[in-house]
Amino acid sequence: MPYFDYNATAPLWPEAQEAWIAASEKYWANPSALYRLATEASRQLELARGWMAERLACSPEQLIFTSGATENVHTAFYSLAQVLDKKSASVALSALEHPCVKAAAHQYFPGRILPVLVNKQGVLCLESLESLLKTRSISLVAVMAASNEIGTLQKWQEARQLCHTYGTKIFVDAVQWVGRLPSEALGECDFVSISSHKLGGPRGLGLLKLPRDLSSPFLMTGGLQEQGKRAGTQNVPGILAFLAAWQCCQLAQEQAAYKQAQYRNQLVSKLLDQIPGLRLLGEGAPLLWNTAAFLMPAYEGIRWVRRLDQMGFQLGMGAACSSKQEKGSSQFSFLNEDPTSFHRLVRISSGPFTSVLEWEALTDAFIRTWESFQLPR
Ligand code: PLP
Fold first, then answer.
1. DSSP assignment, residue 285?
2. pLDDT at position 203, please?
3. How do residues 268-294 score in pLDDT, each as one tens digit?
4. What distance in Å separates the CA atoms of residue 48 and residue 37, rounded to the nearest whole number?
5. For the residues of 25-43, what is the DSSP string, one character each?
6. Where does ligand 1 bind, in terms of residues with CB under 6 Å?
7. Which ligand 1 atom is nearest residue 70's CA?
8. I need a surface site. Which of 43, 114, 119, 283 has the fewest CB within 10 A?
9. What percent of the chain is modeled with pLDDT above 90?
10. CA of residue 71 to ligand 1 center, whole Å
11. pLDDT of residue 325 exceeding 60
């Protein structure tokens, strides 16, 4: 089944499944307990944390395991909100951000959210960020490393430099970046959010990088797991499967970046040629190697997705978590399009080993679908 919805969730790597089964047999004990069975589970947990810390060029003590990226952002925003002035502390973010980032900002910094502009290609505008940092007192800036919806790569390294020049912390949502592109420079960002299932690990697991100097109350309280920063018994087998998945991505990423971008570009140029009025979002901007998001010239995205599903292809209509809702007009406000046009959004996102045959078959399926929609009923 050609699966083209990796930005929604990636299938579990077989290596991750094996790691999970093996760890469920060997390392199932509670890692906080004190007998040898438990201390071995705890050792495996720390080995996983150590490997991940190397990938992010940070110290293992700065990493905590969580239930996913949604918890990561709530933890970071909650912790900061506890130590900042409740009346004046504000956060800055753009329309590109994932709904979980927007929701956390509204929950913990109500009425104190400043917008960073995004250009027409879907790239965060650094000039807008700098002018905000210069003129307003901002405690935290949230930047998505790569857009889950349209695949545009954001200038988070430049944004980090700007934030640190003005003494502001940066939260980087690296959910779609890690496992696809080099991650070492992320260690210099204050907060970094990663989700296991987006890189082919199990669902319900995440990793959050925290700044060294954070000594705030934390969101998940109770036991003293994760150095007292995140209560709850750690899911060691899940974390070892997450590690195996990340290691697989690490090995595959360089070749995948080259090949998948090439196959994606071939599909894009053929579809732009064959389907009049089709629009590629983020055109001309640097894109994730696996993503292409289109505004179809006619018919709702749902109609395209259903027809292509009947032909054996799974693809999305932007963020999976909001695909059952109305596409809000503010979500893509930067594109200067009629808001109703976003009902025509269709997103393709491949995996590291999606074959050229699958890409070609998808290209043909799009063209056949378009032709069938043109036929008189
Ligand atoms: N951030 C981005 C960019 C995402 O794509 C997603 C997943 O949809 C999330 C955050 C939320 O991730 P999770 O499912 O781990 O809570």
1. S
2. 98
3. 999 999 999 999 999 999 999 999 999
4. 17
5. HHS-S-TTS-SHHHHHHHH
6. 68-70, 98, 100, 144, 148, 173, 175-176, 195, 206, 319, 321
7. 16
8. 43
9. 89
10. 10
11. no
297, pLDDT greater than 60? yes
Q: Which residues contact 119 (CB under 8 A, 6 or more apart)?
A: 125, 334
- Distance (angstroms) between ligand 1 centre and the Cα of 323 equals 13
* pLDDT bucket at 204, cuts 50 / 70 / 90: very high
**φ, ψ dihedrals at 151, nearest 5°:** 80, 5
Q: How far is the centre of ligand 1, averaged over its atoms, from the C-alpha of 103 (Å)?
A: 13
Distance (Å, rounded) from C-alpha 89 to C-alpha 79?
13
pLDDT in tens, 54-112: 999 999 999 999 999 999 999 999 999 999 988 889 999 999 999 999 999 999 999 99
CA of 238 to the centre of ligand 1 (A): 18
Atom 12 (ligand 1): residue with closest C-alpha? 69
Distances (CA, A) of 231 to 72, 90, 107, 278: 13, 27, 21, 49
Which of 177, 195, 196 to probe ligand 1 with, by most ligand atoms within 8 A of CB?
195
8 A C-beta contact, residue 182 and residue 159: no
Range of weakest confidence among 19-23, 296-300, 310-314 = 296-300
What's the CA-to-centroid distance between 176 and ligand 1, angstroms? 8
CA of 28 to the centre of ligand 1 (A): 27
Ligand 1 atom closest to 73 (CA): 10
CA distance 251 to 254: 7
- Report yes or no: 126 and 158 within 8 Å, Cβ to Cβ: yes
Give the per-residue pLDDT at 341: 80
